[in-house]
Each structure stands twice: as C-alpha cells, then as structure tokens.
# Entry
Amino acid sequence: MPVRKFRSIEEMKKDRGYDRDDPRLPRIIEGIWDFGRKTARLRFPPGVHRYRTVEEMTARTAEWAEDNFRAFRARRDAERTGAHAEPAPTPGRG
# Structure
C-alpha cells in the first residue's frame, strides 16, 4: 500500500479515495473482501465460554489465535506448493 504525504488538512480532504458513483468501486470492494477471506479466515468455537480467571481466558484466547495462525500458514504453504489445504477445524472441536 502506498504511503501518501500531505502538507495540509485541505490536501487530505481532496484525496478521499473513490467516489461512490465510481463504476470501479464494486470491483475494488470485492477485491478487498477477497483478500480478507484469503488472509484472515479466523475461526472460534461457537457458544458462550466462561472462565474462572482472566488468565484462563487469556490462555484460551491465545490458543485460538495460535490455531488460527497455524491454519493460515498451512493455507499459505499449500498455495505456494500448489497443493490443496484442508480447511482448519474450529478450535475446540477437533
């Protein structure tokens, strides 16, 4: 993503991105959503979770984050080698 520098607030206001009437906008939004789907397929176990301590909650959340990161790396590695990555299971469900 390019870095843009502005000399004043007025310059920033002029450069707000795409106009909502721009015919390219739906394609651009679709590309952003597609990028998000490819890079951030976060999965969390469904339901309400109770914890006895904040530390227990923090440990479980870190475990889910690690599971999500491992799944991301597996997908990325599979894409690089041309193999098909299996969808990651929902954490806490196998």
Observations:
- The radius of gyration is 20 Å.
- Residues 52-94 form one domain.
- Residues 46 and 83 are 29 Å apart (CA to CA).
- Helices lie at 9-14, 25-39, 54-81.
